[in-house]
Write a structure and sequence with these properties.
single chain; 5 helices; mainly alpha; two-stranded antiparallel sheet; Arc Repressor Mutant, subunit A
Length: 179
């Protein structure tokens, strides 16, 4: 069974308690406006907190780092590392070479692939023929890696845009060294 983006509906129904995107933005704007007004804390007098007053003392450049994965019953079965492993298997044509590119042993790489295959109930890699011919991704393996990367990218973009509207300083996207 190949995983396919056609199985995913383009627009999903809202979850209980979830607001449409426009309503979320309006609520966030109202919250910001309410926060910028004077606060009247109970107890001793305290200076009100103002977002505009927060200015970093020294220049720095924060970067967003996200750790996203999929799990079932508390067991992680797929994340960005496994997606990268599958992309490397496709590029290298070998689990051993893909593992070496990532600084891990063949046994660790093969174990991670098997764990994901067992959790999903589909094969992610297959032999190209004889043992010497190496391996390739199955259509399900290609689809899963592509869909995970698309999801990760969408979440990262949302995190960046949210950070830009929340923090009084610029937050940058994570870039691998050498890219």
């Amino acid at each position: 069974m190949a995983l396919n983006s056609a199985h995913l509906s383009p627009a999903r129904p809202l979850l209980p308690g979830e607001e449409p995107k426009g309503a979320q933005e309006e609520r966030l704007a109202k919250t910001r406006q309410a926060r910028s007004g004077p606060r009247r804390p109970e107890g001793p007098a305290v200076e009100p907190f103002e977002v505009e007053a927060f200015q970093p003392q020294c220049p720095y450049h924060p970067t967003i780092r996200l750790h996203l994965w999929l799990e079932n019953n508390g067991e992680m079965f797929f994340g960005i590392g496994r997606a990268q492993l599958l992309f490397n298997v496709q590029q290298q044509g070998s689990i051993k070479k893909a593992a070496a590119c990532m600084g891990m042993s063949y046994r660790a790489a093969w174990g991670k692939i098997q764990q994901s295959e067992q959790a999903l109930g589909v094969k992610l890699v297959e032999s190209r023929g004889s043992k010497r011919d190496g391996v390739r991704l199955t259509p399900a393996g290609e689809d899963l890696a592509d869909m995970f990367l698309a999801w990760f990218t969408a979440v990262e973009r949302y995190a960046l845009s949210s950070a830009a509207s929340i923090f009084p300083f610029q937050v940058a996207e994570f870039k691998q060294k050498g890219t």
